[in-house]
Amino acid sequence: MNEANESSNIVNLSQRLDPSSGRGGDLLNAVRNIASRRLQQYVGNMFEHVDDALFDLAEKAENNAAQMHYFDGMREVRKRRPVIERGFLAQVSRELNDFASGTRSSAGSSGTSTPVPGSVELSLVADNELEESLALTSMIGKNETRLSRELFAVNQRLSVICGGTRIEDATNPVGPALLAQAFRQAMRELSADMRVKLIIYKLFDRYVMASLEELYQETNAELMRAGVLPQLRHEVVRNTSGGTGTAAGSAAASAVDVSAPLPTDDSEASAELLQTLRTLFSARRAHPTVPLSAMTAGPLPTANELIGALSVLQSQAAMVPMAPVPAAATMSTLDIAEQVLHLKEQLFTQLGSLRGQRPGQIATIDEDTIDLVGMLFEFILEDRNLPPQMQVLLARLQIPYLKAAILDRKLFAHRQHPARRLLDGLADAAKSWSEESDRDGRLHDTIKAIVERLLQEFDDDMTIFDRLSAELQQFQETNRRRAELAEQRVAESTRGREKLEQARRRAAREILNRLGDHSVPPLVHGVLSRAWANYLVLTILRKGEESNEFREALRFVDAFIASTKPARTPEARRELLQLLPGIERALRKGLANVAFQDADIEKLLAQLHIYYRQQLGEAPPAPEQAQLVDAAPAPLPIPESIQPLTETIADLEDEAAHAEPAEEAMPADVRDELERVKALRPGTWLEFSSEEGHFERAKLSWVSPMSGRYLFVNRRGLKVADYSPYELAVVMAEARARVLASNALFDRAMDAIVDRLSHEETRPGEPSP
């Protein structure tokens, strides 16, 4: 930010006070009291919301480990809150004391550790500290920009109190930079996970930084009442050097104008990227493709002329119908490059029509902007994260975005620029699109409508990007709520099936382990593998594996198997007779619980009575009765949700043959993909392809805590597939699935453009348009 016009009618620097004098000291004490009172209120309010925020995150955590991090953080914050609050307020008080005594840090001039305006010093620090620094950088830059007017007034009035010494955002003891650093210092008392700390920093931004406007307004009002610069007004003089020599040219300064100062940015990363782009474009211009002597003399097109020519081209583009594109349609790099050059040629032709003479060249900053926007849309048409249909739709926005970049150079500097947010939002929505998930065409038509409106309605009013972003966000929010309900139902259904399958397998294992090498009659085996196995499953589902009911059900299995041992001695017969009443009682109870009819229970018990009479040697069975005993009982009616476990037992007996290979035995490519699979988190989008060439995009919705399987749903929340980690790794190794990028389209494009420019070879000159 360039603050100017520090003449006497804006800031009267002849009005100076000595901070050590009585009046100066009183004024600083007044500032100290305002700051202490308000900051204590703000930071207290912030901590009142920490518990709720961490609890909400714990409930939504993707696994138990993450959940415990948040719960541990809650406990630690409750314990350390008083120390952190005192430490923060004490640090602010020390800054004010140093300021009053004249021993304050002068970061703005001496380069000490105090952060420069809108930034936090980044050095070779641990990843956690870097992450913390970036969070503070973003917070400081955003609030210094938002509060620029009030902060400017406070700076100027404190400067008067300090005898005319220049006070800047970074050296203001109650400015966002020093307050953020004071809170960071106080946060060193908190030994919590970095995820927890970052949440607290967000809350500090929301409840403390967001309230600073009130603090500055009260401070300014108090100092004005005391007669310190009562007529102060705030004025920002914009940079007028743009190469066009007109006011319009100044407003249209390019996003890669090397001569212009860096704008206050959303983050240090964006500012660094912008500076890199400027350097690369400057180096590009150091090797001109056309000798200066070959260029046509004449005035350079002004920004107004560029906007006018683009508006004509935009209206022509708006009249071209959007033809449907087959899903398999792709565009070669050569085709894309020709389209970019074609727009440039069209622009020169249109400029010639408007001014009656074709310009030989345009300002380098404008040409850089044209090339940069061209590269952005070339990236969009090559970006595999977007389906081909969506690539073609978004590519039609090249002219409106070139206009926006010429009108407002902050498009490439600010992550939160409305035009940038709209393009990122459209790309994010488009990423999830597939023909299967958008059968009604609502998403395709919504994106198409936004593209058409920009082509038809965008003149020079940048607020259209905000309006369209709000409409897109509302559409996305409505669909998100619907999808979440469907997704929740799919997850609950899957969770229920897994619980049932886990219970079936546990019941089957218990029966198999107890049977061991015992040879039991078909009648007994049938009861265990059908009726009683189902009872075990229901008991696990209703009561749990640690319940007394489950333990009693397992004791019945032991007793039932023991009852099949030959009873050849009086002692063995006595033991069998002691077992039988308990076996019958347990069977009646268990079979009734799995909805057997009384007649079926009596039929089964009758068969068992015959068998046990034979075991006890009481009467030889009749031939037809012996046949009943030796045969397995006929299948009995059982609940639809609980099927006999014969197949489950068979699967378990053959489980080793179908087990997934150990990780060290996997092929190298599968092992590598397995590491990527393990790093996937819910919310990640993948594209799956079938042998028939069908493509489907699906989001990782849920990772089962029981089986570890990955559940994927489409944008409507409907199930697409589920895989074990090994199965998914195999699919990815066979190139039948790939992970889609999760970062914003604009960021990906800027990184790709920097990489391209960095490796761009110097080519022989080509004729200029």
UniProtKB/TrEMBL annotation:
Region (Disordered): 1-24
Composition-biased stretches (Polar residues): 1-18
Alphabetical keyword list: Coiled coil
Database matches in InterPro entries: DUF1631 (IPR012434)
Coiled-coil spans in chain: 468-510
Domain of life: Bacteria
Protein's name according to its UniProt entry: DUF1631 domain-containing protein
Gene source species: Dyella monticola
Source taxonomy: Bacteria, Pseudomonadati, Pseudomonadota, Gammaproteobacteria, Lysobacterales
